[in-house]
Design brief:
706 residues; alpha/beta; Rossmann fold; Beta-Lactamase; Alpha-Beta Plaits; 4 domains; 8-stranded mixed β-barrel; 5-stranded parallel sheet; 25 helices; 27 strands; binds ligand C2E; binds calcium ion
Length: 706
């Protein structure tokens, strides 16, 4: 912008001359003229001048008066005024001019170089002032921006300023702080800025926190921070973080200043996170984390009061099946319903937790005796046993429970939990018993079993097993009809372990599947070898446990091995017990159906001991049945056993099945069984189960003798 110079003179010719002189400046300027002091003031109103050059003597308002008026106004008193006067030498006049704001004088008649050099200096000053002014404007703008930003950030962070007058203890709140306290957005007309934090707090909180602030004043250092909560004017719960600090000047307390931050949302988020950490989303029950935390304090309280407490674990039976059969959605509904039913049973002394997928735990406090706990267990069971109906399906589920007592069974939460778990697995093992109390013997048995399980695992890895073979003889022709493969565990450390001992363990732990595959392969290979060596088929009967039958891949495995060793189905028979037919989901029946389809012989083992159900017999239609040793043992002495054997043989023959008598030890038994029309005999009378080499030499001896 071109700087403007105002020239004032009542003589127009002077103005023209001055203007002409000013053209000699080496800077471009705009020169504006005024004929009088008042006209000059008008021009000042219109323009921003870098400099005023004025005559002193003028009618109406002289130069001094005009300068004095400019001097009075903040906007104009910065404009340098140079008087052009003949009276320059007059001391009195000069002082008057300076006090009126004159910055310099130029003597008439004007000397050109004096005018130009003085004007140039003031123009330079003006230029610099302009630069500074611009910087200031810029700075102010930036400060304003920053302040707005800060206010916005504070508004976003919901932070307000807060101060307390240390004399009157009156509070002064910033707009934002006030908005926080009133529970309204900043700028809301409902914001009542006469509020104070202290009036919002409960009496107790107010006394405490303001007491601490007074202490802070006395202690002359430090800050005080606190969290507080109150109900805002519009009835919302508000959590705030406050901090105050004493402000001193020359060692004198002048102010107590701080901030108030609204942390309600953060608090709420933290509460939700904490809730989720401690609760199960599906059932809304407290979860395993809660269990551990709360059980610790329950145990501590119980110990302190010398009372008793029980921990009960509730595990739903076969809940995986519900998932598989009815789908996860129904399973979830059921879990939520079970949680609801159980929760209804809870008194103030019982707390229910969901500690696993289908596992719940209850802590019962203030109990008197085990009988009382058992009553609770019964009522929980009832609640679970009630039928569930979803989408037209009626579903029922049972549970197994384990209970441990404090202080009898264990002294801390972890051990209580372990003991309850042990008692629970005992209930699982026995379908007839729904709940068990923990006892010491239980843990010893458990310990032993664990050790055996590890040993068995080891034995499977190192293959400390061998198959023995026991012949089956045709009672009519005395021919060798086949063999039964029987497993033996010969452990370098443990010595001989009987199958009656380790097969049930292997079934429970699932190890039977690995072991079973080994047995099948071994037996099939033996059958293949004998076919070659003996030039005839010696069918091998393989015992298959219930757990193996459940596996739908079993038939494929048989097929694969039979193909590999190149044997035909007539060379293999499977022996199963009736329990394999009790599986309610039909998987076992399907496996058996496929095995039969493959033309493998199926023998029903230990017949007469278990259910001995004719229905089972009819539905499975095995190729043979084996009368249990217990009947054969007494066949000569106990007429009813003989009678039972007789009946079994009759029924079996009617159904076109072969009958095998197990545990034949004496020739008399052979004869009797022959009379009863039994087809095959197996037992020590012919041979004990033998290792392969021994069996082969027995075979040759037997063949030679007959
Ligand atoms: P099991 O299938 O009923 O086998 C017959 C059991 O009676 C065998 O006992 C056999 O040695 C025994 N035995 C045979 N003849 C006589 C006799 O004249 N007198 C007496 N007192 N006993 C006789 P073992 O070998 O100890 O097997 C016991 C049970 O272990 C078997 O009963 C079977 O359930 C199971 N087992 C044996 N080997 C296997 C196998 O390879 N797989 C599976 N899953 N189970 C097997
Ligand atoms: Ca058998
Ligand atoms: Ca048997």
């Amino acid at each position: 912008m071109v700087p403007k110079i105002l020239i004032v003179d009542d003589v127009p010719a002077n103005l023209v001359a001055l203007k002409a002189l000013l053209r000699g400046l080496d800077k471009e300027v705009e020169v504006i003229s005024a004929n009088s002091g008042s006209e000059a003031l008008e021009k000042v109103l219109e323009h921003e001048f870098a400099l005023i050059l004025t005559d002193v003597q003028m009618p109406e308002m002289d130069g001094f008066e005009m300068a004095a008026i400019l001097q009075e106004h903040d906007e104009w008193n910065q404009i340098p005024v140079i008087f052009i006067t003949a009276a320059y030498k007059d001391e009195q006049n000069r002082d008057r001019g300076y006090s009126a704001g004159a910055v310099d004088y130029i003597q008439k008649p004007i000397e050109e170089h004096v005018l130009l050099s003085k004007t140039a200096i003031f123009l330079k000053l003006y230029e610099q002032r302009q630069i500074i002014k611009n910087i200031n404007v810029d700075l102010e703008k930036r400060v304003a921006e920053r302040t707005a930003e800060l206010l916005q950030t504070q508004a976003m962070a919901k932070i307000g300023g807060w101060s307390i007058n240390p004399q009157t203890w009156e509070e002064n709140l910033s707009e934002q702080a006030c908005a926080i306290i009133c529970g309204v957005p900043i700028g809301d007309p409902d914001c009542n800025c006469n509020s104070s934090l202290s009036e919002m707090l409960s009496e107790e909180d107010r006394e405490y926190h303001f007491g601490r602030i007074r202490e802070l004043v006395d202690s002359v250092d430090g800050q005080y921070e606190f969290l507080a909560e109150f109900t805002t004017k519009n009835d919302q719960m508000c959590h705030v973080f406050c901090n105050v600090e004493c402000m001193y000047e020359n060692g004198k307390l002048v102010d107590i200043r701080g901030i108030i931050q609204d942390i309600t949302e953060r608090q709420r988020a933290e509460e939700i996170i904490q809730y989720l950490e401690m609760h199960d989303a599906l059932t809304t029950l407290p979860n395993r984390n809660s269990f551990h935390e709360q059980a610790l304090s329950y145990v501590a309280d119980t110990r302190a009061m010398g009372e008793q407490l029980a921990v009960m674990l509730i595990d739903l039976d076969k809940f995986k099946d519900v998932n598989d059969v009815h789908g996860q959605a129904v399973a979830d509904l059921m879990l939520a319903e079970i949680a609801r039913r159980l929760n209804e049973k809870m008194t103030q002394y019982e707390t229910l937790y969901r500690v696993g997928g289908d596992e719940f735990a209850v802590v019962l406090r203030g109990i008197e005796n085990a009988v009382e706990v058992a009553q609770h267990a019964e009522s929980y069971l009832q609640a679970i046993a009630e039928e569930f109906v979803y989408f037209g399906d009626t579903i029922s589920v049972s549970a197994s429970m384990g209970i441990s007592l404090f202080p009898q069974d264990a002294d801390d939460v972890d051990s209580l939990m372990k003991s309850a778990d042990l008692a629970m697995s005992r209930s699982k093992e026995d379908p007839g018993i729904a709940y068990n109390f923990y006892d010491k013997e239980m843990s010893q048995t458990f310990q032993r079993r664990k050790e055996q399980e590890i040993r068995l695992h080891h034995a499977i890895e190192r293959n400390f097993f061998e198959l023995y073979y026991q012949p089956k003889i045709n009672l009519k022709t005395n021919e060798i009809q086949g063999v039964e493969a029987l497993i033996r565990w010969n452990d370098p450390e443990l010595g001989f372990v009987g199958p009656d001992e380790f097969i049930p363990l292997a079934e429970e732990t699932g190890q039977i599947r690995d072991l079973g595959r080994w047995i099948i392969r071994e037996a099939c290979e033996a059958a293949a070898r004998w076919k070659k060596e003996l030039g005839r088929t010696v069918p091998v009967a393989i015992n298959i446990s219930v757990e193996q039958i459940k596996c739908p891949k079993l038939p494929d495995f048989f097929q694969k091995v039979m193909n590999e060793v190149n044997i035909t189905p007539d060379m293999i028979e499977v022996e199963i017990t009736e329990t394999a037919l009790l599986d309610d989901r039909g998987e076992s029946r399907e496996t058996l159906r496929r095995l039969k389809e493959m033309d493998l012989g199926i023998a029903l083992d230990d017949f007469g001991t278990g259910y001995s159900s004719l229905t089972h017999l009819k539905s499975l239609l095995p190729s043979s049945i084996k009368i249990d040793r217990s009947f054969i043992q007494n066949i000569m002495t106990d007429p009813s056993d003989a009678h039972i054997a007789d009946m079994i043989i009759c029924v079996a023959h009617n159904l076109k099945m072969t009958v095998i008598a197990e545990g034949v030890e004496e020739i008399e038994q052979c004869d009797r069984l022959n009379e009863l029309n039994c087809d095959i005999g197996q037992g020590y009378f012919y041979s004990k189960p033998l290792p392969e080499a021994d069996f082969l030499s027995w075979y040759h001896d037997y063949a030679k003798a007959s």
